[in-house]
Amino acid sequence: MSKICSNCAAENNDDSKYCAVCGYQLPVFQNEETKPAAAVKEKSKKPNLVGMIAFAVTFVVAFFATQYFLSPSVDSQLEKVAEAMNKTLPVKVDEYMTLDHVSALKNKTIQYEYSLVDLTKAEVKLDTVKKYIFPPILENIKTNPTMEVMRKGKVTFKYRYKDKDGIFVTDYVVTPEMYKSE
After folding, report:
1. CA-CA distance, 40 to 57, in Å (whole number)?
2. Which residue, among 62, 137, 61, has the nearest Cα to 97 in the 3D structure?
3. Architecture of domain 46-179
């Protein structure tokens, strides 16, 4: 059985929590296990954040792939992807982070700009971010089949994070050299 998005009517996998097309939260079926809020809060600090980042990237790739043959350059395709995504932003990725804006930059680069909802720069532990957030981002870009179009286009991915006051916290850049096949 698949889940149908109540926002855009797209069909999604049974285990999906968010729509692969519009990002809307999918309904939870009665037979799905629900955890107490405290357990979800403790666990969601790292894995949920990674999953949501992977969702955002996958959304971009899906849109990018559908537009692949209609546009003459990667840069113009990235502009279309950013424009389409920005129509639905900002969107709360999880209880800790919001995706605020997507930008198509020059030289085949796409930039995702996030806000940390309840944290100030002083409260962010950069070692933890580097350990738990950035490696899964790179792994998703390297292995996700829907990322193939962007890998072939040699797209650079930039992730920028700011705190709840809008102060820059950190960024992460994934270049084609980092994800290329050997």
Report:
1. 23
2. 137
3. 2-Layer Sandwich (3.30)
Write out pLDDT tens, residues 120-150.
999 988 888 888 888 988 998 899 888 888 8
- Tokens matching residue 52: 């949501």
User: Concatenated DSSP letters for 144-181?
Assistant: -GGGHHHHHTT-EEEEEEE-TTS-EEEEEEE-HHHH--
Does the pTM surpass 0.85? The reply is: no
Report which DSSP code applies to 115: E
| DSSP 8-state class, residue 68 | G
CA angle (177, 179, 181) in 5-degree steps: 95
In the chain, where are the structural domains located? Answer: 1-34, 46-179
The reported pLDDT for the residue numbered 69 is: 47
> Any alpha helices (H) in the chain, and if so which ranges?
37-43, 47-67, 74-86, 126-132, 134-143, 148-152, 176-179
Contact 96, 139 (CB under 8 A): no
Residue where the block lists tokens 């809008």: 166
